Every structure is written in structure tokens, then in C-alpha cells.
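Example 129.
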Amino acid sequence: MAADINALADLRCPKCGGQLGGFPQDDACAGIRCLSCDYAVVTTNHNRPSFDPTPYDVWVDVGATDRLSVIAAVANALCIGVVAARQMLDAGSPVARGVNASEVQRLARLFRGLGLGVRVSPPFRWPLE
Ligand SMILES: [Zn+2]
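Predicted structure in complex with zinc ion:
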């Protein structure tokens, strides 16, 4: 749905005749705007994580981290008991099921702060920042 910005190069602003341009891909706005004046045709940019309707499952990537530390970290992060956290990890269960993209990013930040990575399924198409 994103307009090809390069196709705008020959178009001119109807207000001042200036060159038209677009918005950065991750901007909250999508559309075209004049680079010289305040003319703009703008819509909400739906190509953002907050509009991604995909339900994601998230696993903690245990990796080489000490297992007990991982269990403690997961228990803390999810506000669940250590026993529940251990069962979850032993079973290879996701720490979150069917969550939206914004929640995936929140969890990724949370676990990265604890020194842990996450795996996401289906493949996550947004930055895990
Ligand atoms: Zn203009």
C-alpha cells in the first residue's frame, strides 16, 4: 500500500510548486508532503507494529545462560513463581502466547534487560528494539 516515493519526484506541490516527498517508513504518518511548504496529504501509517494483527508466541532463548538464573529471571519478569517458571522452561513452552507485536517488543526489551534473548514465532518483521 505504500506509495513508491520515487514516483513522486516529477510531481509538484499544488500550493507552491515545490518538490514533494514522503515520510520515513517508521513514521506515524504516511503520505506525501511538500518539502518547501506545509502542504501535505497524510494518512496514518498502518505499516507499524501497533497495527500488526498477527498473534505471536514468544520463547525465552535460554542459550548458554546459567539455567537457574534464567528460571529466576523469567519468574521475576512474568511475576510467576520459580516452580511455574521452571515448568514452563522444562516444557519448552512460550512465555507468552498470542500476543501482539507491541507486546513482543516489550517482552524482548524486558528479557534483554535481564540478559536473555527471545525467539518469536511466526517470524517477527519488526525490530526487537
Ligand atoms: Zn509546497
